[in-house]
Amino acid sequence: MEGIVNCIAYCEGRRVANIDIAKIRETLLHKDTFVWVGLHEPGEELLKSIQEEFDLHDLAIEDAHNAHQRPKLELYGETMFIVLRTAQINSINHHIDFGETHFFVGDNFIVTVRHGSSLSYKDVRARCENTPELLGKGPAFALYAVMDSIVDQYFPVIETLEQKLLDVEEEIFGKKPTRGTTQRIYELKRELLEVKRVITPLIDICNRLMRFDIKRVPDDTRPYFRDVYDHAVRINEMLDNTRDLVTAALEANFSLTSISQSEVSKKFAGWAAIIGVPTMIAGIYGMNFEAMPELHWHYAYPVVLAVTFVLCIVLYIFFKRSGWL
Amino acid sequence: MEGIVNCIAYCEGRRVANIDIAKIRETLLHKDTFVWVGLHEPGEELLKSIQEEFDLHDLAIEDAHNAHQRPKLELYGETMFIVLRTAQINSINHHIDFGETHFFVGDNFIVTVRHGSSLSYKDVRARCENTPELLGKGPAFALYAVMDSIVDQYFPVIETLEQKLLDVEEEIFGKKPTRGTTQRIYELKRELLEVKRVITPLIDICNRLMRFDIKRVPDDTRPYFRDVYDHAVRINEMLDNTRDLVTAALEANFSLTSISQSEVSKKFAGWAAIIGVPTMIAGIYGMNFEAMPELHWHYAYPVVLAVTFVLCIVLYIFFKRSGWL
Amino acid sequence: MEGIVNCIAYCEGRRVANIDIAKIRETLLHKDTFVWVGLHEPGEELLKSIQEEFDLHDLAIEDAHNAHQRPKLELYGETMFIVLRTAQINSINHHIDFGETHFFVGDNFIVTVRHGSSLSYKDVRARCENTPELLGKGPAFALYAVMDSIVDQYFPVIETLEQKLLDVEEEIFGKKPTRGTTQRIYELKRELLEVKRVITPLIDICNRLMRFDIKRVPDDTRPYFRDVYDHAVRINEMLDNTRDLVTAALEANFSLTSISQSEVSKKFAGWAAIIGVPTMIAGIYGMNFEAMPELHWHYAYPVVLAVTFVLCIVLYIFFKRSGWL
Amino acid sequence: MEGIVNCIAYCEGRRVANIDIAKIRETLLHKDTFVWVGLHEPGEELLKSIQEEFDLHDLAIEDAHNAHQRPKLELYGETMFIVLRTAQINSINHHIDFGETHFFVGDNFIVTVRHGSSLSYKDVRARCENTPELLGKGPAFALYAVMDSIVDQYFPVIETLEQKLLDVEEEIFGKKPTRGTTQRIYELKRELLEVKRVITPLIDICNRLMRFDIKRVPDDTRPYFRDVYDHAVRINEMLDNTRDLVTAALEANFSLTSISQSEVSKKFAGWAAIIGVPTMIAGIYGMNFEAMPELHWHYAYPVVLAVTFVLCIVLYIFFKRSGWL
Amino acid sequence: MEGIVNCIAYCEGRRVANIDIAKIRETLLHKDTFVWVGLHEPGEELLKSIQEEFDLHDLAIEDAHNAHQRPKLELYGETMFIVLRTAQINSINHHIDFGETHFFVGDNFIVTVRHGSSLSYKDVRARCENTPELLGKGPAFALYAVMDSIVDQYFPVIETLEQKLLDVEEEIFGKKPTRGTTQRIYELKRELLEVKRVITPLIDICNRLMRFDIKRVPDDTRPYFRDVYDHAVRINEMLDNTRDLVTAALEANFSLTSISQSEVSKKFAGWAAIIGVPTMIAGIYGMNFEAMPELHWHYAYPVVLAVTFVLCIVLYIFFKRSGWL
Fold first, then answer.
1. Would the CB atoms of A182 and B259 count as touching at under 8 Å?
2. Which residue windows are coiled coil (chains A, B, C, D, E) (predicted)?
3. Which structural domain, as residue segments, surrounds residue D53?
4. Which residues in chain A have Cβ-Cβ distances shorter than 8 Å to B273?
5. Which of D134, D160, D176 is the last residue of a domain?
6. Tell me, what CATH number does E46's domain have?
7. Residues of A with Cβ-Cβ distance to B241 under 8 angstroms
8. pTM tops 0.80, yes or no
9. Does residue E76 lie in a domain region?
10. What is the pLDDT of residue E1?
11. B252 lies within 8 A of chain A by CB
12. Whole-number average pLDDT of chain B
């Protein structure tokens, strides 16, 4: 059936057999056996048969069918329903692509439902199968393994955002900031907000999984969720840090724009004076009065030129010293 | 009586009969029966008879009579009184129209009181009647159904606000920002604040309904309120996100205005120099000294013109390279 | 004695008699009887006799003597001491006048002490006496009635502040913002802070009165305090909303000032160019070179004038199109 | 021994005798007797003998020796160790001088250790001795008396800061704001932060003293600490209020600077036009074309002057109306 | 083996012997004996043998192998795993160098694992060995001693940051602020954020160690962790204070830049007028009208010069008084 990636039974952590959806109920009667079903954008019909096999709640199935959920953990009787969001840097436009993975976790089964652009969990499953003593802890360990891989995919995302911040910093302090800098800061903020919305509920989810109110998670598996929690908290801190720095960068950018504006005004004022003074003097000797004795002196012209020139030099030095030029 | 939209008795989730307000008490004596009364801006007299039939508290009736309550959930003995606010985008002026719906929920009755511009709940009632096995859970399920429809009406409102933000972003980064941009940002902020005031208490209400301190909600109905809660939280996140972006957009707008001001100053300074230099030179050769040898040279005029022109070109290139022009 | 407004005994909610302060103790021996004393800026002596009659704590009496307390609820053994602040819009200067009312509430007595410019509670008392079945609930109901009237007086205060905000908005977006606008925004902020300081502790007080840790409030009176609480929360929300909008208005004002500054610069630059170009050309033809062939051409003057004029027109159109003029 | 200000035994609130440090242990054997020791910047040796007499913890003694602690309350077994910070306005430079007082409070003793520029507690002790019925409540009352006096010293400090804010407001809105205004705002912020750091932990300390987890404080003394708590909260509110207003003042200052900058630009632009137009016209009639018919008209000069003058007047009126001049 | 700094057994607080990693298990069988192992960037193999000797959890060992953990306290069964970050000012570039120390603390052992540029704990160990009565309290005291030394190393770091703030303040208010000032403020913010990220979790860790939920810490050792907690809180307050002041400094810087911009504009406007007026007058008398009677008056030239000069003086005085020059 389309949408099924895998449906495998495990006994004491060891892969027993690929089984058919319809045979799940039967398989689960064996002791120490659990079933791990992997789905990818399943159709309604497939979800319906899954619902029947595992006795899932209508609302959870409805959620699992629609993507665009926020990360959450919900208990429906004996079954735990978890929504996580995945993120990857799109290698072409360097934006972040978000996907979703939903989990149904019961006493002896785990169903993962992937939506959107997330990586396959084949590798995760392979790694789990390599450590049967751990996978033997049951579906909660499989849940941990997938969550861990999802959370680990966030680190490169954050690092890309941190790199974007460094680029912006260099633009601000190294080169001249432009309109583009402001836009890049804005877009960085937007992306940080998007990732933040994904990470914050994840911390709550891990928090609940590592505490004692959720019976689906055996005691010896809790430290693993604490590990995921720890990573999520670290990602969150990196995000907050980057966000605070982006805010500071915007302020610095603003402050530098203002200083630069001030510098332009000073430079302009300085040069305007240096051009304005000779213009004024020239204007005076351009007057047409009959009786202007200086006009008739022989060296008047070079003297006036020289005086004007000296005046300009004096002005130049004065403005240079005042830091206006 | 004016103000009554509907007054129907249900038995095991199935519609039994339209009944008269005065016969409610009598009807409620039947086992597994509940009454769903729908009112629209009821008069004082009608509310009084409702109060008598269901034994409601004075203060709740007073509140139900006046619109302009904030969303809240209050327990008066056995009866739960809930106020919710509805929102719709006005199709004419694209502003948000707010309305109010109040609920009285008891063991075997639910009264909905609509105020202002909210949609009728006919469709909701019809959908409920199509799933008698769910409506059989009692008045709490009817409450859920109406709440769910109210909360779902918020999504288009938020999407309109998000679209307004996108328009503002385009104005800021694409075209030149104007005074109108600032005003639009301000109005967007105002609308976001208004919606926020409606959504935040709604989350608390859902939270209480899905936890165990409210006995009116049977255990198997709680997951439905969790679903509403989930939607409310998502709306709230979308709001917060939009609000953060509006703030960032205002800053970006501000930053760009400042950069643009700086650019104007630079351009002006550059052109002022390019016009100022020939003016100064012309002034000098406009002086009336008798002894100005250059004046008598034959090619002085074209040479001075050429020199001045070259100077202007040099200045132009200089300013161009400095990014001032 | 000066400072006593009223001292009345009630039995089962009905007024029994005006009594003397000295006879209070005696009166309170009757079953189902409580005493309601109203004081207005009482002297030390009067407070002392009140203290003796009701066995009040030194610290509470000290507080009741001095105005300028912050709103609070304190328990001294069996007696509850409450401080509330009242507010009214001064009809002359449109500022807010604050007053204070203190309450001592015991099992069978309530003392209200008014300070500063608050309204008399005569009307409240009259309304209470009209509903003896409610006043029969005891001093807690009298407390509710006065608190309710105090809180209701806040609504016009908030509405005045909201109106001031609307005026500021109109100044900002409609007319040109001036120095006065900034000052009005500042003063609005100051007033909002003042009211906020009064409302926030009020919410806590109501919260305690409607919960179960205060034994002075009988169970059937609690819903009334929840009603006051609800009003206080609404006032608080209106305040927060107005404060957020004032902040946004300040930013908008700032942004518009900056845009307006930018517009001035652009306009100035444009006109400076339009005036500068003819000045430069005129300067060139004002030079005194002997050999300037143009000077001798017959139509040179009108041609130059025309060319200059056309240049100015071209510049004008150019700047107009760029949005600089 | 240097550093001892006082060491007095009290019985039932009445002063019994000045005693020697070495005799404390012996004195404390009497029933209903407690010892109040006052130290001022004690040496290590003195602290050691105090430690031995009262059996104090090493870490507390270490803290008491070094000033520059943050306000805190710590329990070491039976003994309570409290650090408070005192504040006074320096009458010379109008800055705030901070000091410290440490307390060791046991069942039958209290030790106060003053550091830095705080007032002596002689007056407090005298006042306590005047009300032996209160001092008879034990060391906790002595603690209250000193704390109350410390907290009361904060009110003039806050009032000084509020006065500084009023001065800044007047500078901003009344006179022209200068660089000094900005610096004064900055310094006010710094001082507010300093006082805040002292007050916030004080509230926590009072809070703990008035609740039931500290056994050293008898029940009938708790209301007194609630009184101190109340004062601390009021000081804290005044601080927060002042801080919010300082922030608003900075924004207002900034906004007004920007408006003032805009006004300068407008004025300059207006006058530049009024000077620029005659300069341009004069330039035109200063051109040396042979064929300029106007030059030969007899009234050309006065006519041109008059036209220019009228133009300037027109410009002046235009700019005046536009609010640019 | 490389990576082992020390491995010493202590009995009743006294050093017994340097022992081999392989003999730890054997040694721990003695009563009242504990082992303190010091590692520095250990290899995988060494960590493996440590894990075996002390029965440590896989996840903790994995963490201990990789540096770049965030500070945390985790319990794995009987063993406590703690990560702390160390900080020092790099004496060359005045930046902060961060390192990490991990601890495994059991009933009778403590393992410290240093990563990166942190100081050796030789001195700490020496000081502990000098007070065997304290070290006799067991591994928790050794943990305290190392934590205390780590936290004490933060004080010079904070003081360096505070000094950087003072330098920035001086630049802002004393000298003219430049682009460098803005960059220094930004870098200071970055460093404050980095230290903050290290200190905040440290407070939580101390908090848990001084409360009663961690059994590894005996009761008489808790006050020591309260001491560390106290230091951490103080560092945190200093950080927050510095951060608030940096924000205020940025605003002040910004405000002063704006005022300075305004001053430049005023100065420029003033001088432009003083130069512009003579230029205009000179232009008028440079016109070539035939009939300009003034031109023929004998004293016209000196009179015009004088009038112009006086006008300039008047303008100068006017602008000086207005505060524009």
1. yes
2. none
3. 1-134
4. 271, 275
5. D134
6. 3.30.460.20
7. 193-194, 197
8. yes
9. yes
10. 56
11. yes
12. 90
